[in-house]
Amino acid sequence: MSIKRKPNLSATIALLPTWFVAVVVFIGTMAWSIRLSFTNSTLFPSSTYVGLAQYSKLLSSAKWLASLQNVLIFGVLYVAGCLLLGFLLAAALDRKIRFESAFRTIFLYPYAMSFVVTGLIWQWMLNPTLGIQASVRSLGWESFVLDWVVNRDMAIYALVLAGVWQGAGLVMVIALAGMRGIEAEQWKAARIDGIPVWRIYVSIILPQLGPALAAAGMLLAMGVIKTYDIVVAMTNGGPGNATEVPAKFIMDNLFGRQNLGLATAGATVLVLGVIIAVAPFRYAMHMRDKAKGAA
Amino acid sequence: MKNMMKLFLAGVAFAGLFASAHAEDKPTIEIMSSWTSGGEAAALNVIKTEFEKRGGVWKDSSIAGFGAADAAFQNRIVAGDAPGAKQGVIGLAAADFINQGLFNPIDDVASSGKWADALPKSIHDLISYDGKVYLAPTGAHGESWIFYSKEAFEKAGISQEPKTWDELFADLDKMKTAGIVPVAWGGQPWQQTKVFNMILLSQVGIDGFLKIYVDKDKSPASVEGVKKALEILGKLRGYVDAGAAGRNWNDATAMLITAKAGVQFMGDWAKGEFTVAGKEPGKDYGCMIVPESKGMVYIADALWFPKTGKAETDKAQKLLAEVVMDPAIQVEFALKKGSVPMRSDVDKSKLDVCAQKGVELMAAGAIVPDQAIVLTPQQVGALDDFVDEYWSGGSNDAAAAAENFFAVFE
C-alpha cells in the first residue's frame, strides 16, 4: 500500500540549484568535451569537425594502448592488494591486541598523505642509486638488486606497491568497523564448536563484511580511473610507456602538447569504458531488486 | 560611537584611495616563469632588480617545471586572468596565442629601441608576426654541449678533449674502469630528445638537419643520417648509471660538480648550476661541442606579453621589454643563466670561454633551430615519444627505428 506523495513545491525550489549544477556543470561539460573530440582543436577549441579522425589517431597510438593496458594491470592488482592487505590488518587488529589505536593510526596514516608524497617517497626508496638497493649494497651485499622503478618490466608493479601501501589503511578501517558490528555471540558459538580462528574469519566474518568491502573496493576503483599524481611523482610514465596511464595521457595532450581534440577523445573513450564496465553490474543489481520486489 | 564609526569609514576610504592611486602610478606586472633552479632564478633576478630600479612593481609567479608552468599559463588564459608576462620559447608555441589575438604587440618599444638592427635577422623574424614584434628575447642557448668534470677526466687519465665519437667512447671506457659514472644522464624525454638532436647534427650537418626538420625530407640520405644518430645514441646506454631514469638535468649536473660523473650532454643552461656551485669554466669544468659537429642546435627564450586589460600592466610590459633588451642586462643575464646574449652589439669580453665559443658559432651562422622552434607542440611530443621509446626500449635496431622516425611529422 503505497501513498502517492504530492510534489512539495518548496523542496523542488530548494533543489533547483542542485539540478542546475548537475545539468550544466556535469552533463554540460561532458557534452562539450565530447563535441570537442570530433573537432581538430589544438590549443583552443575549434569548430572544424573532422569526424572520427581523433579516435582513429587515438586507437593507433601505441602510447594510448599501453596506457589502457597499464591502468588495467594497476587497477586489478591495486584494488585486490588493498582489499587483501586491509582485511588482514583489520583481522590482526581485531584480536584485541594492545595499543590498538596506535596501530590503527599508523596503518591509516599513509592514506592521509597525498599520492604525490607517497609517489616521491617510494621513488626515493626504489631508486637504485639512492634508496634500498644502495643501502643494502653499502652493507656488503654487492649483488642486491631492487630497481623496479627504472625497470621497464617492473615499473608498473612498483606503482602497485606504493598504491597498496597507501590504500590498505582505508580498507582496514572500513573492515574493522564492519567486524566490530558483528555480534559477539557468533564468536562464542564458533569457539564452542571448536572452529579454528582463521576458519571463522574466512567462513563467518568475511561473508558478513561483503557490503563494507564492496564499498571500499568501489572507492579504490574510482581512484584507479583517475590515477595520475602517483605516476607523475614516481615514474612520469616511464621508462618508455611502461607506466603511462590514460589520465596522464589526457593531461599531457590537454596542456603540454596542446592537443585538445585528441585529449577529449581520450577522455570520452575513458568514460565510455567505465560505463561499459559498470553497466552490466548495475543491470544485474536492478534485475535482482526487481526479482526481490516481485517475490 | 557613531562618530568613531564615521571616522573609521572615512579612514578606510582614504586609505583605499591612497593605495589605489599609489598602485596606478607604478607599472605592475605578474611574471610567470619556470626558471626556478639556482642559476635560472639568479638570472631572472637580474631582470627583476633592474625593472624595480626603473620604478616597476614585480610579482613573481614562478612554477617549477616547463610543462607545469605552461599548463598553469593556459588555464589562466582560458579563465580570462592572464599574467602580465610569461617566459616561453621563441617558436611555434607562441603562434597559436598570437593568432587568437591574446598577446599585446610591443612594436613601439622594438622600433624605438632599434631591435631590428641589434638582433640577428633570423631571431627578429621569429619574434615578429604579421610584421609586428610580439616577443622580447632574453637570451639564446646552445644545445650541442658536452660538459665534463676536469677532476673526473684527470682521475681517468684523459688529457685532452675527444675529437671524434670513437675517441669519446674510448674516453668513456676509461672512466668506467676508473670507477666513475661516464655519462650523467638526464632521464626525461625532453632531455633525451636534445641529445638525439645534437648527435643528429653531428651526423648530417647543418643542411641535412634543416632538411629533416624544416623540409621534413624523407630521402635515403636523411634516413641514413637518423640511423647513424640512433646508433650512437644507443651506444650511450652502456655508459649511464642505474638511477638515470627520470633524472632532472640539474641533478645530472650535480653529479659532474661532485666529480661522481664524467660528462653531461646538455644545453648551456647547465653552466648556471656550475656557477651557483662556485665552479669556473675552463678551470673546474670544460665545455665542448659534441664531436664531429660543425655547428650547434640553439633555442631562444623570450618573454610573452598577454593582454590583461589593465593599463598599469600594459605600461609595465613595455618597461619590461625595454629592460630585457638593455645591452648591459643582456650580458648580465647571460652570465647568470649560462646563455648567449641575443643582441649582437653587446660587450662580449665579460662572457666566459664557453659562451664565447657559442657567440662565435652564432655569429658565423653555424646554428640550427631546436625542435620547439620549428615543430608544433604535438610534433615535439611525438618526437619525445619516439626517442624515449628507442632509448628505454633497449632496441638496437636503429635501421627500423629510423624508418619510423618520420611518422613524427604526421
From TrEMBL, chain A:
The keyword Amino-acid biosynthesis does not apply. It comes from Rhizobium leguminosarum. One of its GO terms (cellular component) is plasma membrane. It is a multi-pass membrane protein. Keywords: Cell membrane, Membrane, Plasmid, Transmembrane, Transmembrane helix, Transport. It is found in: Cell membrane. This is Sugar ABC transporter permease. It comes from the Bacteria. Belongs to the binding-protein-dependent transport system permease family.
UniProtKB/TrEMBL annotation, chain B:
Belongs to the bacterial solute-binding protein 1 family. Keywords: Periplasm, Plasmid, Signal, Sugar transport, Transport. The keyword Transmembrane helix does not apply. It comes from the Bacteria. This is Probable sugar-binding periplasmic protein. Pfam families: SBP_bac_1. Residues 1-23 form the signal peptide. Its main location: periplasm. GO terms for cellular component: periplasmic space. It is found in: Periplasm. Part of a binding-protein-dependent transport system for a sugar.
